[in-house]
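Lab meeting, item 3. Inverse folding demo.
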């Protein structure tokens, strides 16, 4: 015999309000903004009532009634790269504005992302959508009232583009090393299918030419420590550079090891720079000169633009440079000999 006891019935927001001794509007505000703006005692009473009743909001029904969910979606390409820091910046900005965040990573390229974005918009489960990669024209056919912000920081393979491909620090490092007497440079590039690797190689070539310095060449690496070792092993003694600009910190660690094996002291005989400010790079011997990228800032600025659109307000964006050179012990004055 089918059972229809009250235990199976889903508790309502009105029951939560009665148990907490508040209005249903207060409960709704608690759910939408995670308690932000309510008095501590009120937040505690509502939270206790929700827990006692095991209340779960019907998000579909709520969004159909009000077309406001208090939720936003972040769409990423397939996660071949760990985007934790950028997502941290985006989610922190959303939470500070009272929004919950759903992260979605559909398989496929721009067409697949656009299809998923349309599904989210049609279901009215989120107020706005932030995509960190490109979408196709289908995403232009969103239902009225749906806000989409595209901040293309990655391509379909999670390779950095946009601000992540800014190579200006390469020029800054070469310029400062040149002021310290360096005149022969080698660049160990990353995988050239990455826009960032291509940009750094281009800036390296242009800066060397602009300053009238000598280039030992560009070694095509693959972001690995092994490519740093291979590049140093391939240098002829007669062509030894005074400074090596490595594609990232991992490549630079390979350079440090290979230089040591060849009897070259860093930085006395050879200056070395990396990129990424990877954890532990400051503890290497010598500590590695590198580039710190504020990936969290990219995420928070992108989310701020979405929230600004949702609220019809000008977004408050951080204008600090994304990249900053951190000078440490692996760089110094050029050798005199």
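The presenter then showed the designed sequence:
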């Amino acid at each position: 015999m089918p059972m229809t006891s009250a235990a199976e019935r889903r508790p309502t927001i009105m029951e939560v309000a009665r148990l907490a001794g508040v209005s249903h509007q207060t409960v709704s505000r608690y759910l939408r903004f995670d308690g932000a703006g309510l008095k501590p005692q009120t937040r505690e009473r509502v939270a206790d009532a929700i827990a006692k009743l095991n209340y779960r909001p019907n998000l579909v029904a709520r969004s159909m009634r009000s077309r406001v969910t208090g939720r936003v979606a972040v769409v990423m390409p397939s996660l071949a790269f760990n985007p934790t820091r950028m997502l941290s910046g985006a989610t922190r900005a959303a939470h500070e504005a009272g929004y919950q965040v759903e992260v979605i990573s559909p398989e496929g390229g721009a067409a697949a992302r656009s299809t998923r974005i349309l599904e989210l918009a049609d279901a009215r489960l989120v107020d706005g959508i932030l995509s960190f990669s490109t979408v196709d024209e289908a995403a232009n056919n969103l239902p009225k009232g749906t806000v989409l912000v595209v901040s293309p920081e990655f391509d379909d393979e999670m390779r950095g583009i946009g601000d992540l491909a800014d190579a200006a620090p390469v020029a800054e490092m070469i310029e400062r090393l040149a002021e310290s007497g360096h005149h022969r440079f080698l660049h160990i590039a990353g995988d050239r299918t990455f826009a960032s690797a291509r940009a750094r190689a281009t800036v390296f070539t242009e800066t060397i030419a602009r300053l009238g310095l000598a280039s030992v060449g560009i070694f095509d690496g693959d972001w690995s420590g092994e490519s740093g070792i291979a590049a140093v092993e391939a240098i002829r003694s007669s062509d030894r550079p005074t400074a090596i600009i490595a594609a990232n910190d991992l490549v630079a660690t390979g350079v440090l090891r290979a230089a040591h094996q060849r009897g070259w002291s860093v930085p006395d005989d050879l200056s070395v720079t990396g990129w990424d400010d990877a954890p532990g790079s400051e503890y290497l011997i010598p500590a590695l000169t590198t580039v710190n990228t504020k990936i969290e800032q990219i995420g928070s600025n992108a989310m701020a633009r979405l929230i600004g659109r949702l609220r019809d307000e000008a977004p408050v964006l951080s204008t600090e440079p994304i990249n900053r050179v951190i000078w440490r012990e692996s760089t110094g004055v050029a050798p005199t000999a």
